[in-house]
Amino acid sequence: MRASLIQIAVDPDESVGARRQRAAALVRRQRGADLVVLPELWPVGAFAYESFAEEAEALDGPTFEAMSKAARDAGVWLHAGSIVERDPEGPLYNTSLVISPAGERAATYRKIHRFGFDQGEAAMMGAGGELVTLRLPETTLGLATCYDLRFPELFRGLVDAGAQTLVVPAGWPARRRAHWTLLARARAVENQAYVLACSTAGTHAGVEQSGHSIVVDPWGEVLAEAGPGEEVLTVDLDPAKVATTRERFPALKDRRLGLETPPRR
Asked: Is 111 designated active site?
């Protein structure tokens, strides 16, 4: 299975519309890949809080429309990163979109853990409440977003729901890049799953982004890592390696906490 992570740069001098078209062109260039991943909130910038309300859109809004056409043209499964979703009956959400090769919306995930410590995203957006997995022909995706990476219980829940490949779009700041790579590897090791972590490059509202999108295999080995600038990272994955790793080193079977207490004998 071939996966391409598009580490797009967010330039404050580039309009949202222009960036959508540029991202769509980058997706179309990934023909031959099975799965393409974009970062978190790339249309507006993950730290551009003052623009969230203005750039909020419906699930079938302009970002979905542009990405749907691009996915169809390239013939790929597209994790289109996330958008600022405007729910007509509720708050804004940080919502990921997954689009099928036919251009149809296959899954959505509203980010559960909002960053900001009661400010920024945490104050402006509602929290999602559902774990989301999606079965592809060769693997089952588990969806998470950026700050979620710090909460291992979410990923264990995704694995319990059948996830074999954990996809994490992000707008991770450069000043915490060491945490980014450490946590991506930890989530892969503890869940014996692939981790595809796609961050942005550039600067969001004065916050330098980490870049360094990373692909980690179920044993924790880094298969590929991008640099700090705009880049497309393409990696061939072996979906069978998840089952093989879990069979040869069956640590998940030794879990005791978070499961029903076994009966006394």
From this structure: yes
